[in-house]
Amino acid sequence: MPRTTIAALLTLLALVAALAAPAASVAGAGAAPKVVVIVGPVGAMTASYQADADAAAAAALQYTPNVVKVYTPNATWEAVKAALQGASIVIYMGHGNGFPSPYRTTPWPLSQNGLGLNPVAGGDNTTTRYYGESYLASEIRLAPNAAVFLHHLCYASGNSEPGRGEPTLAVAQQRIDNYGAGWLQAGARAVLADAHFGAAYYVNALFTTSQTIDAVWRGAPGAQGNYLAFPSSRTPGALGQLDPETPTSGFYRSLIGDPTLSTTSITGGAGATGVLSGTTSSGDPAVPAADPTAVDPALGGATSPALPLDTIPPLAVPASPTGLTAATFSPNGDGIADRLSTDVVTNEAGVIEVTVSQPAGPPVRSFTVPAAAGRVRIIWDGRTDAGVIAPDGPYTLSLTPRDAAGNVGPTLARPVAVYAAVTVLPASSNPFFPHDPNGTAPATTTLGFTLAAPATVTWTISDRAGRTVTTRYLAVPLAPGAHTFTWDGRDAAGNVVAPGTYYSNINAGNGSLALRTRAAFTVGAFAISVSDTTPARGQTIAISVISAEPLGASPRLVIAQPGTTARVVTMSPSGSGYRATIMLRRTTRTGSLVLAVSATDLAGVTNRSRLVLPLH
């Protein structure tokens, strides 16, 4: 893999707890934890990978004598399989082969998401045979609370091969999820991938600190700080995380599994494979817990049994790199930016405790949101505990996860602001049709807003692509009250704009607060809406149409999809518009679904509009 410049330590001092005891006490009185270091054949990069592996092995030998190295040209499956049994820490450096892949259209677990090894012992350092996730899941049993570290691989952290295009975020997440699946089935509780940085730092952190694997990962040199998370679809309950170089590219660091796994659990899990008796399924120690149904032993009854007790706090992380950025909303009931939503991902079920506070003030609102493991949406409607809209100003939204056992995790904080002084008015005619000014309906629409307090306003109209077509105000101070603008559908040059979706954009501020809003409306004969804007073949969808002008008869709807003959249906009146429900054809072709609406207005002019949607 190509190397990039390794960034300096970013957050290590903030995340790492006090140093633990020396190695002998870290591992406990049982067997020494087993560390397995594997290097597969990588051609010209073999010597470099082996040097990184040697550094990691040397670090491990400071804390445990149970270090096994399996290097090319003798890193065969049989040798690796024997070494991995009961391992607490697995380090692999070599080629990666994952999915989604440019070589296959469907997953191939026999060779994907595993190890690239020597076909036979004593061969060369170039020929590679891949042993995929099915080999790991069926033939490997790691120690309890094991952690796996994948270094310099393609695919494992979401990345592509050198010379191939950057994957999308969705593809990167799939690759991370798939690459972790086999290792997690083999007994690992966490799989960490770092394409550019070696393993020695991680080994030292595991043995000399008491912290979570999540903190170890976030404190590593090369951490970018662009964290985002997703619930695993391959491994129930597992949490996937990325730390790309930018919010949408450079996928070279990842972590999947249980982010609350502690370093002491990893290094103290030696001595057996599978789940140890005396632990819960999560690896937490089983300790005596009160049983309200137990009989007092002093009265001759049975003793209370040792029940599993969860003592590890949950973790919540932003669902996107920008999930905790500052935001302003306007809870005034105009349907524009009335609520503030924040998405997080949690690693276990429980609740999210939410508090909203002003700077240096008590909470104005407190509530809880039920949370299953995975993505959770938290919505604040701008109201206080008294049920009234909070005064305009800055606030802090604090989100604290609490699991079913009562453990409380770290709090996330998001700065937000309420600015309800700007109320958007609906377009007077929506849609409106300036292309047919025949007098049967208005060829203009009136847009507007009201101000509850003075503000400086920029007001523009833009098209769907974000291009400004005309400007009403440009940083103009305005007094409280209603402000309207009747638009005839012409741009700044006096030309009638093309049919389509347009936006009334209002940017208002008072010096300390600022709000950007946009209200959509339609220019054209018909406004067409669909119950699902990304329909699938064979799906039933509802199409609704509102006409800009009175019609002489119900409109006709033409449905055109690839691989089929176009169909025509007559729409039925519904409320102030028309409606039709159709089932799309089941074909072998994806592409574009075209919905074309036509009807004759009262002046005898045939009006037409169409909507094009992606079809999958």
Question: What does this 3D model show about the protein?
Answer:
The protein is mainly β and 616 residues long. Strand 28 and strand 29 form a beta hairpin. It is built from nine helices and 33 strands. Helix 3 runs parallel beside helix 7 and helix 5 runs parallel beside helix 6. The radius of gyration is 30 Å and the shape is globular. The chain has an eight-stranded mixed beta sheet with strand order 2-1-3-6-7-10-9-8, sandwiched between helices. A five-stranded mixed beta sheet has the order 12-18-17-14-15, with no helix packed on it. It has a four-stranded antiparallel beta sheet with strand order 22-21-24-25, with no helix packed on it. It has four domains: 236 residues, no CATH class; 103 residues, Sandwich (Immunoglobulin-like), CATH 2.60.40; 102 residues, Immunoglobulin-like, CATH 2.60.40.4070; 90 residues, Immunoglobulin-like (Sandwich), CATH 2.60.40. The N terminus is likely disordered.
Summarize the structure.
By secondary structure, the protein is mostly beta strands. It is built from nine helices and 33 strands.
